[in-house]
Amino acid sequence: MPGQLTVRPIARQDYEQWLPLWDGYNASYGRSGATALAGEITQMTWSRFFDAYEPVHALVAERDGTLLGLVHYLYHRSTTAIAPNCYLQDLFTSQAARGRGIGRALIEGVYEGAKAAGAGRVYWLTHETNHTAMKLYDKIGEKSGFVVYRKLF
Predict the structure, then answer these.
(1) Predicted TM-score (pTM) of this structure
(2) Got the DSSP string for the chain?
(3) Across the chain, what does the average pLDDT equal?
């Protein structure tokens, strides 16, 4: 019988197991091979988790010493509230571990951390074609009704 799932803050010794999850997350959004993120971005992302001056945080889901998923989130200010907002930026579960409540556990870990930090809300985005994830999101969050616009440089 497998051990209990643990959601915990990322640790420096997690890098070797975090990296394949990070690469899998990026590949799911078309960032692999010729379109992969530059190594400098991955290294900067990793270093931000351990820099007390950065508002970027990471949790991992672990069972029996194996990382099964990750979530990255950050806090930011708002012009409409005193409390910070929490933006859940990246969520990924290994293919083999999907459908076992790991994504939910990671999001609930962010909820707990955000409450403890005094955040007024947690929010995230997903691609409109990500129907599998939206089945979970519809159970643990609510659609805001906002449409995202952007301009890339």
Answers:
(1) 0.93
(2) -----EEEE--GGGHHHHHHHHHHHHHHTT-SGGGPPPHHHHHHHHHHTT-TT--EEEEEEEETTEEEEEEEEEEE--SS-SSPEEEEEEEEE-GGGTTSSHHHHHHHHHHHHHHHTT-SEEE----TT-HHHHHHHHHHS------------
(3) 95
- pLDDT, tens digit, for every residue of 52-92? 999 999 999 999 999 999 999 999 999 999 999 999 999 99
